[in-house]
Fold this sequence. Notes:
The structure holds 2 protein chains of 2 kinds.
Chain A: E1 4-12, H1 26-31, H2 34-48, E2 56-60, H3 66-79, H4 84-90, H5 94-103, E3 109-112, H6 118-126, E4 136-142, H7 146-151, H8 157-163, E5 170-177, E6 186-194, H9 200-211, E7 217-218, H10 229-240, E8 245-252, E9 257-264
Parallel strand pairs in A: 2-3, 2-4, 7-8
Antiparallel strand pairs in A: 1-5, 1-6, 4-5, 6-9, 8-9
Chain B: E1 2-5, E2 8-9, H1 11-19, E3 26-27, E4 40-41, H2 56-69, E5 80-85, H3 91-103, H4 105-110, H5 120-130, E6 136-139, H6 145-158, E7 164-171, H7 175-183, E8 207-214, H8 216-222, E9 229-237, H9 250-263, E10 272-274, H10 281-295, E11 301-302, H11 305-308, H12 315-329, E12 331-332, E13 353-354, E14 359-366, E15 370-377
Parallel strand pairs in B: 5-6, 5-7, 10-11, 10-14
Antiparallel strand pairs in B: 1-2, 1-8, 3-4, 7-8, 9-15, 12-13, 14-15
Helix pairs in contact in B: 1-12, 2-5, 6-12, 9-10
Amino acid sequence: MSALHIRGCSAAIPGADNAWQDELPAHIKRRDPRIWTMAYAATARLLKTISEKPRSVCVGTGLGALDETKNFLDGLFKDGFGSPRNFIASVHNSMAGKLALEFSIDGPNLTMCDGQNSLASAIALCGLLPDNAFPCLVVAVDEAIPLLQELAPHLSIDCQTRTAGMGEEGAVALLLDRNSPSGLPAIRAVAPTPVGPHTPEACAAVLAESFGARAATVRPLGDCRSFLSAALQVHATLGSARPGTFIVPSYSPSSMACAAIEVTV
Amino acid sequence: MGAICTAGSGVRAGCDAVFQGKDCLTPLSLFESGLKAPPLCGQVAGLSDEFASPTRTIALACSAAREALSVVKNRRGLSIGLVFATTVGGISRSELFYRAYRTDPETASRAAGELAFHEPCAASGFVCRAFGLAGFVTLSTACSTGLHAVGTAKRLVEQGAFDACLAVGADALALLTIRGFASLMLIDPTGCKPFDGRRAGTSLGEGAAAMLVASEKASAAIGALPLARVSGWGASADCHHMTAPHPEGLGAQKAIAAALAEAEVSPADIGAVATHGTATPDNDRSEIAALRAVFGRVPPFFSVKRTLGHTLAASGILEAVFAVRAMQDGIIPPTAGFEQADPAIGLVPSNLLRTPIRHILKNSFGFGGNNASAVFSLDA
C-alpha cells in the first residue's frame, strides 16, 4: 500500500459545472452515452494540463452505464430486440475501453465495481501495476438515471439503502505516478474490508489499522449514499490546496464493506 | 482450485469433460430467451446452494470458492483476501424485476428487493463474508475479467497485502447477455466451432471457478502443496474498437509478451496455449495472428468453449484451472467442435496429446479491446 503521486486531477460534474459539455468533440457529444461523455470530459480536461500520456487506465464505477442496460432491456421488452449499441455500452468496462480508444492508452485497462468504494479499489489496483504502466489514469465515474427515482417508492428499505448511491453523477480523473518529483500530493487507498452492517465504529477501526495512528483529518463518512462521494471529496481536497493528510472513508451497503483513501497535500 | 460448470460440480468433473473433448452444451432451458430457437448453452444443472445465496451468480461462486478453500488446513494468523470477477453480477434478478415493473408497477412493489443485488460488489461482499475473508476487490473487464483476477491476486500476494488471495470468477446465464451477444450476431445457434472454417459465433455458458494464490510461506502454513505457479500476468488494451479485436491482435501480442516477460520464459518454453478461442470469426483469427507474431512457430493450442460454453468473467479462471490440471497430467486437450481447418487461419488446434508441459499460456480477451494473458508453470 505504498503511496502514489498525483500529477493532476480534473472533474466533470453536471450541475456544478456544465461547461464540460461544450468541450466535447462533436463525434462524442453526438453519439456516445452520457456516462462515457463525463468520463471523457474529465480525462480530456486532465490531460490538457499534463504533457505526459497515461500508459494504463483504472476505472472505478458503481454500476457502469446503467442507463444503457435499461435501454437495452426496454428495447427487448417493448420491441423484442435490444440495440447492440446499448449492449456494448452497458458492459461495466465500456468507459475504460472508450478512454483507451480515444486517448490511445494501450497498457493495462482495468475496471473496479465496488459501489461507493470503487475509487478506493481503483487506486489500490493502480498501485499493483508494474512500473511501465505509469503514469496511470484513474477515473471514478457514475451516472444518475431517472428510473431509480421513479422506482424509489416501490423499493424496500434495504433496497433503497443499496440503490441510493445512484442519485449523483459525474466523473473525476486523476493521473497517478509512482516515481515523480517530490512535492506532488500523494495518494493511497485501502481496498474494501468487510465490516458488516454500517457502523462508524467499524469503519474507524479499519482506518486505524490500515493507516496507523498518524495525524490526519478524517473526512466525515456522512451517509455515504453517493457512489461519487469519495471521488468528490478527493477532488475538493486537492482543489483546496490546504496542506495536511486527509482520509476519505467510504462504505458500500451492498457489499457491507468500507474502504478509505488517504490524500497527503 | 475449485470449479463448477455445465460439465458438473468440481474440478474433476470439468477436467473429465475437457480432456475428452466432450460437447456439454444443451438448448437453453433456464429461461425463455425470445430467440427463434433456444441457443445451445453451457448450463449448470442441479445447482445446490448451502449458503442461501441471493443470486445464481453468487451460488456458483460459493460452490467454487468452497472447493478451492477445502485445501486450507490451517488459517490461523493468515490473512486471505478475495479478488472477485463478474460481468453480470445480479442482473438476472434485476431483469425479472424490471420486466415486472414495466408491466405492472404494483407487481414490482412486491418484488422490490430484487434490485438490491444488482451491484457486482454485492456478490463479492457476500462471498467474502461467507468464507471469512479479510478483504476484497471486484473486477469487471468483460470476458477478460477472470484472468485479470488471477493476476491481481498474484500482485496482492507479492506486495504483501494478503498472505493468500482467492481469485473467483462467476457469471450466471442471463437474458441480457444471451440477447446482447445475439444482437451483435455473435452466437452460433448450432453450437460454437472454435478455429473451424465454418465457425459462426460463440456459445454462452455459466459457471464459476476459484484459484487460491499464496506465497510459498503461506502455502506451507496453510498446509497445501502448491499445484503450479502463476509465473506471469500481462494486460493491455487494443485501442482499436469497442467490440472487434485488432485484426493482427496487436493488443493481444502485447499482453502475451508481458506475461512471458514477467514469467521469465521464452516463447519456446511454452508447451501449450489455452486460447480464448470463442469461435467468433474475428476473435479466432486475431488470436492466431497474435500467437504467430509472438511465437513464430505456434505451440499446440486448444479451446474449451464448445465443451463448457463461454462463461464470460468465469472463463479466464475456469479455463486456467483446467489448463493447470492439463499441465499436471501432461495432456493437451482436444478442441470440441473443431472439424474443418480455416485457410484464413492456417493452423489447426491440437488433437488430444500426451506430452510433458512445464509452462502453459492462457489468454482471455474482452469487449473494450481488453486483453489478459497469464503463464502458469510447474516448478522443475
